[in-house]
Write a structure and sequence with these properties.
Blueprint lengths: L12 E4 L7 E5 L4 E8 L2 E5 L11 H10 L3 E9 L1 E2 L2 E2 L1 H5 L6 H10 L3 E10 L2 E2 L5 H11 L7 E3 L2 E2 L2 H10 L7 E6 L9 E7 L2 E13 L2 E12 L5 E8 L3 H11 L42 E13 L2 E2 L2 E2 L3 E6 L21 H6 L4
Parallel strand pairs: 1-13, 8-10, 16-20
Antiparallel strand pairs: 2-11, 2-12, 3-4, 3-5, 5-8, 6-7, 8-9, 12-13, 14-15, 14-17, 15-16, 17-20, 18-19
Amino acid sequence: MDLPVMPPVKPMLAKSVKTIPPGMQYEAKWDGFRAIVHRDGRELVIGSRTGKPLTRYFPELVDALLERLPTRCVVDGEIVIAHDGRLDFDRLSERIHPAASRVRMLSERTPARFIAFDVLADGDASLMDTPLTERRTALERMLTGVTPPVHLAPCTTDAGTARDWFERYEGAGLDGVVAKPLDLLYRPDARLMYKVKHERTADVVVAGYRFHKSGPVVGSLLLGLHDRAGVLQHVGVCAAFTAQRRAELVEELEPLRLEHPGDHPWAAWAEEAAHESARLPGAPSRWTGRKDLSWVALRPERVCEVGYDHMEGTRFRHTAQFRRWRPDRAPESCGYDQLEEPVSYDLDAVLSGADS
């Protein structure tokens, strides 16, 4: 491979802001694997956000990209998997598997798509120092008439349209909106773009915690919600505490610590079969009965309010943010029914630019 921009390349990133900034190019924020594709003739490398190759995990995309991309180019985009008209990150995560036979089977059962939104090189020319508007023109020319599973990401310079996308497209599993300055040059690993993500709040049960890597202080709180049958399901974690607060939380939660973990609603987390019918914390592992440094079981009696962006099935897609304790809420009252559901919107309509 001999391209003007050689792998590995770390993608340009975005910083979080609360509102959509004016005067920029706007795109949907795709909830998938960020990927930079290098193609030189029959050679093709799909690089991840860390720079490590993803090529072996998406064989169906290798074939599709070789058929649909120009002979020599470097394109930035997102790998996604859709199910029932919306993005499905769980199915996407299943593709990172050491067994080639399983990867091949999943590539046929749940094929991935590649959504292109930037270009770093075209032929023998590097576009890294070319303004965004010119790079977008080059990308549109490059992908004129492209067919699935390769897509050109819709974009707009109208802030009103971007706000409309932000409200409507969440139902297709999208993560928010990305705003890019029109004169932006491509700078790997630099946070020069802006992302606006959905955020909501929920009251959840604190049912345990994990220690922080720095020592015997709280790293994250384990959160639960009751399903319709009244069973407490693990829905995620909240973290990002200061060092002082991590130490305080250990003392604060000590009265709730369970001496016998077998009394905990998630005691079966160590049994592999239990994960098939319930949301439990951690990967299947042998329950030793000793002090377990992976997570500490608490009586599920305290409620806290957390901020979250959106749900992936029955769990928080990303780490939730602690807001405050809710001593006025009973743990039994914390259920899925309080969560706001986005209006459904079909992913193909988003990609085609319908109603945009």
